[in-house]
Amino acid sequence: MSRRDKPRKGEYSKPQQRQKGKNPPPTHPREKGKRSTTSTAPLLQPGEKAINLKKLLFYYIGIFLFTFALYANTYNHTWVLDDYGAFKLNIYVTKGVDGYKDILTKTYRHGSGFYTDNLYRPFSQLIFATLWQISPDNPGFYHLVNAFFYALCAVLLFALLRKMFVRQHLLIPLLITALYAAHPMHTEVVANIKGLDDIMSLFFLLLTMIFTLRFVEATNLRSRILNIVAVFLFFLCAFFSKENAITMLPIIPLMIYFFRKAPIKDYVVVIVALLIPTAIYLYTRFSILSNYPSSKDFTVSIMDHYYYDLYDKNIFSYWATAIMLLGKYLLLLFIPYEQVCDYSYSQLPFATFASWTTLLSLIVHLGLLIYAISQIKKKNPVAFGILFYICTMSIFSNLFIRIGSSFADRFLFLPSLGFCIAIVCFIFQLFKNKVGERVSFSKASSKIIVIGFVIIITLFSTKTILRAADWVDQMTLFGKDVQKSDNSAHMRLYWGLALRDKGLDYKDANEGEKDWNVIQENNKKFIEWTWKAIEQFKKGISIYPGSADCNEQLGIAYDNLYPFYPEEKYRDTAEYYYLNALKIVPSKAATNSNVAKIYFDRGEIQKAKKYYLYSIFYDPLFADGYFNLGSSYGMLGLYDSSFYYYRKCLTFTPDRAECYTFMGLNYTNLGNIDSALAMYKKAISINKYSNNAYILIAKLYLSIQKFDEAEAITNDALEANPYNGEAYFIKGLLKIYGKETQVKDYDGAMADFSKCIKYAPEIAEAYVEKGRIFDMRHQRDSAQFYYEIAFNMNPNLFVLRK
Length: 802
Prior knowledge:
Layout: H1 53-70, H2 83-88, H3 100-105, H4 122-134, H5 139-164, H6 171-182, H7 187-190, H8 196-217, H9 221-241, H10 251-259, H11 264-289, H12 310-313, H13 315-334, H14 356-374, H15 381-394, H16 415-429, H17 444-470, H18 474-484, H19 489-508, H20 516-543, H21 548-561, H22 570-584, H23 589-601, H24 605-618, H25 623-635, H26 639-652, H27 657-670, H28 673-686, H29 691-703, H30 707-720, H31 725-737, H32 746-759, H33 764-776, H34 780-793
Helix pairs in contact: 1-5, 1-6, 5-6, 5-8, 6-16, 6-17, 8-9, 9-11, 10-15, 13-14, 14-15, 15-16, 18-19, 19-20, 20-21, 21-22, 22-23, 23-24, 23-25, 24-25, 25-26, 25-27, 26-27, 27-28, 27-29, 28-29, 29-30, 29-31, 30-31, 31-32, 32-33, 33-34
């Protein structure tokens, strides 16, 4: 043996000469039904230096830090897309630990008012509730939790691959892990808080696979029992994280076949250990969903799944479109040239079997399947990767079952693991003589391959970091993606919502603002952004006129503009779009409530009540519906019903100050002064900017002639909001209708009424009072001017002129 061929200290000796034309079987402790006393699974990878614990720990820490670093920039990200329905606006999640029971017994989005999603994924929501309990409304923290668990998944993946490729060089599992961790198609999952369901499902599936191999390798009964119990528990957790775990049922036995030599009884035990949690999950899911409308009672919107209806109209075109999209998925795995958060109608095309894209995709996928089947007997890991991809992609392909979405980046999260395994193994096999032969990394060709993968992983990592940054907030994400998916009605809706919310930020900034000029500037910006949002909602309708969401949002936008343009009749425009939305989807709770508000303000209380009742019928958790019903029954003088609905609203939103304000009004109308004052003060204690509460207290004191108290609470109102027009109106009244002993301050009252008109020009009574002062001073022309304004606003006030 030459000096060069001598094994170095800590290395394996040169492998024994293998028989010509034969590959050594994978090392396994039990063959021909015999159980060995010690495991023969190698602790070290052949052909490399001995890996001591410190070096192994270095690999694991390096993988964790590399993966975590890819998404570390999400720490300052906020809520986007499904984060709201799954987390922020889900009342069960935001109860913290008190919401556990509801999470376990309700569907995924029940807590946010959605009852037709047919999803049951309690595990991730239990984590969400726990995180909310620890740190409420802290999206940056939740994003880091996603990055943390994704990094743990990478560590587990490396551990699994080391066990799978136990006879291969360590670089093979290392490259597969790095390629998977860095793949840009994963950003929709990891950079989206809601994506924790996918991450946790992968986390438990990897543990399931690791303990499956440990079970097969185990040499004593106790160890085998512990490992198979772990397989059962982890697979159960994977199911309760996300239902697509079911696609792993054929993959795990295949893994044993490809990477271990095990007796039939081991397959039987493993399959049983997988089928039991499958049955438990399916039974639990069925039991939960039996309390909800059947999926046959509702349809999937074209906005979500653009070719869903083709299944009933033209089944061949449906299949052709699904196959064409499978080709796009595969292309994005090889070349992730774009990532978009929405590909809905009509961004992607329909297809037929005459379409070249469909035919090419069909040929490629059939070729992959045939190749994989032909290589099963040889236990080629490339075949395993292909079968992994095909099985896990099947549920998202829409070929076998129709799901609620036509295409999404996130659907590649689990299937891409099969792609990474197949592509790395295939590339290395190109430079080997026979399948299963160990790669020699002393060859220049192998080094070139490694360098090539390092370059690809670097490029993928860069793209992942840049794409993750896009998910910082809805304004950034939708603003970029609408340029890439400009013909998507959903994308136009999302971009419109982002623009609308930008405007609402300016409107919300006015609460507590002391500078009138700032308030006016904020109002101006609010109006500008609202018009921009309207433009996008109209583009969405031009793409798909049947968009209930775009119609609803147009109604809201015009409703919000109405106070600034009372003469433009934008309330009528809002009503038109609300009713359009309800024609398309009658079950939209918020839309029923919004159109009812228009009728309420017109004084059509019975009509308003009908739509409010619809809102809580379609969404029993809809707090606004209960609140508005409380107001409707209060206007009708049915105070018992009014109190009932206000209190019902408080069960969902305990800190809703308006409920206490209007319960106080009920008590005022009932003559219960003490209870009324208690309710008003409770509202102010919750929200010091509760303008209505201040005003109602002041009016109550005026009615019982407690003028000093009325003046004090009016001053408090103006301290909270110096531009409270109604407070200035009451202040003016006190100066001329207050204590009989006080000197009438007409000049001061005139100034207060002028401020009222400036800050709240809709208060017709202020014009009447100014007219009266001018009348008293015999300035008839000025008096007539203000009387006419008041009359045009409210003819019923004309009697006050006399």
